[in-house]
Design a protein that fits this description.
The chain is α+β, with helices and mostly antiparallel strands. The chain has helices at residues 8-11, 14-27, 80-90, and strands spanning 2-4, 32-39, 45-51, 54-61, 66-73, 105-106, 110-111, 115-117, 121-125, 128-131. It has a five-stranded antiparallel β-sheet with strand order 1-5-4-3-2, covered by helices on one side. A three-stranded antiparallel β-sheet has the order 8-9-10, with no helix packed on it. A two-stranded antiparallel sheet has the order 6-7.
Length: 134
């Protein structure tokens, strides 16, 4: 996402940015695993919300009223569009620019697995099991 025209006061506060990103992960039904954010001086925030289904990351430039956001997900339980809507609305972005890129599509291999199961195996689907590292 490219977010232009955002509220600069929100973009420069690490607590506000963290709250928006964590709540966006929850809004899209992702499983939050870890959170790391840093506030730069004089301003700007970078951070990542690690989710079981991958991650959400952000870099802000309040002086330009701009933020760059990546929402990287896998699996069928997460709805990244919910995160997109939540983030754009929370930062008061009037017209977000959104680009969707399909990733992890390996010719002949099918979709990449995304969940680790008991026994150190990853589940690609309910019918196919792939060892970790394969």
């Amino acid at each position: 996402m490219e977010l232009y025209g955002c509220d600069p006061e929100l973009l420069k506060k690490v607590d506000a940015v963290r709250e928006v990103m964590v709540s966006a992960a929850k809004a899209c039904k992702a499983t939050v695993v870890d959170v790391a954010f840093h506030e730069f001086k004089p301003f700007g925030v970078s951070g990542v919300v690690v989710i079981a289904e991958s991650h959400l990351s952000i870099h802000t430039w309040p002086e330009y009223r701009y933020a760059a956001v990546d929402i990287f997900t896998c699996g069928k339980t997460v709805d990244p569009e919910q995160a997109v809507e939540h983030i754009a609305a929370s930062f008061h972005c009037p017209q977000p620019s959104i680009v969707e890129v399909k990733r992890g599509i390996i010719p002949g291999a099918g979709p990449l697995p995304h969940k680790v199961e008991q026994g150190g195996r990853r589940s690609q689907s309910s019918r196919e099991k792939v060892p970790v590292g394969s």
